[in-house]
Design the sequence.
């Protein structure tokens, strides 16, 4: 009987190793404890408790999990800890240099109203079960003049009243901005936001030549929109200056709420299987049994 248990344990271990190897070969996972590149824009000193996918593998995973990548992805991070369920997606947009002269004029109330109207418009083209509803601010937009980071967090829910959370940080650069999007759930948002702000963003460094303060007015393009339009969705929303925020909804409603939740569950499940779950422990046997099972030469 004990021999059979030992054999089953070895078989499970082999099966698990084979499954992990297959999944690992599908995506080029980069283990933490080293620096990784976010393309030509930034570097990230990746904590040993995380794993990383580069731009190509982030887009590949997104497609294979029935999501539509933007094409602007420059990497993504996932926790190894099976008790954590979050992901951080990085994107880069070369929008032109965004002036921060709106830093004292961000109208959170008007922006929230626009988001709500935008998702209502987008919902008209969605099937039941695929719709999203903005319910309010988790964190109202604020700008850090020292780091040139724009941050906000919005709460939403789906048709089943399940709450969703996207915590957004935009790191302004010389020629555009890096997006750091934390996909989490309201239950764990405080812990997950702490991971993002203390273990990820503090380890991210914009490369020399790309930093916000290195803007050269003599040759660098200036963006047509500012901080408020960036919160509303970025490119294309400069038109809001002419027709107003609410009138812009009909044109850009589908872009207003960036939710990667469609692929999120499947992705996190895969990461947990690869890095969170432990291999079966060997069966502990009595010394007499070990002697019994030891082959004679």
Sequence:
């Amino acid at each position: 009987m004990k021999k059979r248990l030992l054999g089953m344990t070895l078989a499970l271990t082999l099966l698990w190793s084979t499954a992990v190897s297959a999944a690992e070969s599908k995506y080029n996972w980069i283990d933490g404890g080293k620096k990784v590149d976010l393309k030509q824009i930034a570097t990230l000193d990746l904590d040993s408790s995380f794993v990383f996918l580069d731009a190509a593998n982030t887009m590949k995973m997104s497609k294979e999990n029935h999501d539509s990548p933007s094409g602007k992805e420059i990497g993504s991070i996932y926790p190894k800890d099976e008790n954590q369920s979050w992901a951080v997606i990085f994107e880069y947009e070369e929008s032109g240099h965004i002036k921060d002269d709106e830093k004292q004029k961000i109208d959170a109330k008007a922006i929230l109203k626009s988001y709500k109207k935008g998702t209502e418009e987008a919902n008209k083209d969605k099937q039941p079960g695929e719709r999203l509803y903005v319910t309010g601010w988790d964190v109202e937009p604020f700008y850090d003049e020292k780091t040139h980071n724009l941050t906000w967090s919005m709460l939403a829910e789906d048709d089943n009243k399940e709450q969703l959370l996207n915590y957004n940080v935009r790191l302004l650069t010389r020629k555009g901005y890096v997006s750091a999007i934390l996909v989490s759930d309201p239950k764990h948002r405080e812990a997950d936001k702490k991971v993002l702000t203390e273990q990820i963003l503090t380890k991210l460094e914009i490369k020399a030549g790309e930093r916000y303060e290195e803007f050269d007015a003599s040759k660098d393009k200036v963006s047509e929109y500012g901080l408020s339009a960036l919160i509303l969705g970025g490119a294309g929303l400069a038109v809001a200056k002419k027709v107003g925020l609410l009138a812009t909804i009909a044109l850009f409603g589908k872009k207003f709420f960036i939710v990667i939740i469609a692929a999120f569950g499947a992705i996190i499940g895969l990461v947990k299987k690869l890095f969170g779950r432990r291999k079966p422990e060997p069966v502990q046997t009595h010394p007499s049994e070990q002697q019994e099972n030891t082959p004679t030469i």
